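Take our chain:
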Amino acid sequence: MSEEQEGGMSSVKKTVLGVLGTAVTGVGIWATTHINSLLGIEDEEETKTEQVAPAPAPVIVNLENNNTQQQNNSGGGTTIIKETVREVPAQAATPAPAAAPVEEKKETPAERMARLKKQREEQNAGK
């Protein structure tokens, strides 16, 4: 019988430990969410995020269903299809777009130094 009592007490112990563990976890979570106010630290302003312009309104296309051809063909008559071949001359090739403007080569630092030295010498020679 002593074994049965120990089993009953161990389940009570487990229940109490479970409740205490849950309570400690809850208090810890609450403390971490309110840590700044508990320590007296003021919150900084929220970081501003970029606002994206709303998407343009969708384009609505109204299509009318013209059933006249379907109604005419549903009369049970025979349909005759005549094919004709029409030769179309090839279009002239479109002219090539104008050549892109040529960009000048950028001056290297060594070239710049040489140019500036030359200018300085010319200025000093002119004095």
Summary: Residues 1-39 form one domain. The two ends are 121 Å apart (CA to CA). The chain has a mean pLDDT of 77.
